[in-house]
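ingest -> validate -> predict -> emit
validate: passed (alphabet ok, no gaps, 255 aa)
predict: started
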Amino acid sequence: MRKKLIVGNLKMNPLTPTEFGRYLDMLERETNGKNFEKTEIVVCPPAVYFRQFLERKMKDVKLGAQDVYWEYQGAYTGEISAGMMKSNGAEYSIVGHSERRKYFGENEEIINVKLKAILKSGLNAILCIGESGEERKSNETASVLKKQLEKSLAGIGIGKTEYITVAYEPIWAVGTDKVPSSDEILEAKIIIKKILAELYSRKAVEKMRILYGGSVKSSCAGQVCVDPAMDGALIGRESLTPYEFIKIASLVDGG
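emit:
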């Protein structure tokens, strides 16, 4: 049985290496003495802090990237390839985050080529999908998730599925403190598993983890992760507070 997965997306934070050093100090204190037998923990800081993170040699916390560029190398000013992330210590990469879609206009075609680059480089992928508030009100959740999964996974064979984690991230819940009910999350999970089984097979889906992401706090971790039997969580804002982040991981590990 695969371990659960807790991913902290620090986004464009913190501002300075000194602040990040204090963050790592707190993270080390919170993980010290704890044994996460059933859960992997991944932190995705800005790439400028990779070396600083790795110097701490935290055995219970893995390093992830927030995004990659789809080309391997070349004249692409400002971009960082999946291969560069991998060679600098990353083990995971997020792809298709709702903020990348909203602020950078990323669609499924872009997400697809990025996902292929992530897998080709040997990284594990965390593929984010989710519907907007209007789409949910219009009962379009299933069709939106189907379109996102089919197009994002186009051309990716069944042999790569075990390296892909799907994060259900309803856009209307991200950063809003609107928390879906356990039934709503479970319904989305069932839809996702059905779509993946149609694209690949039921056996392949068993190897794929499905996370929940969107305003996750320790106070609602049971509702959004444990009760709907999700395989973990993608955490944004609360991952900036190590006490809260590790508390969520502990709740999921014990759930």
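Residues 8-254 form a domain with the TIM Barrel fold (CATH 3.20.20.70).
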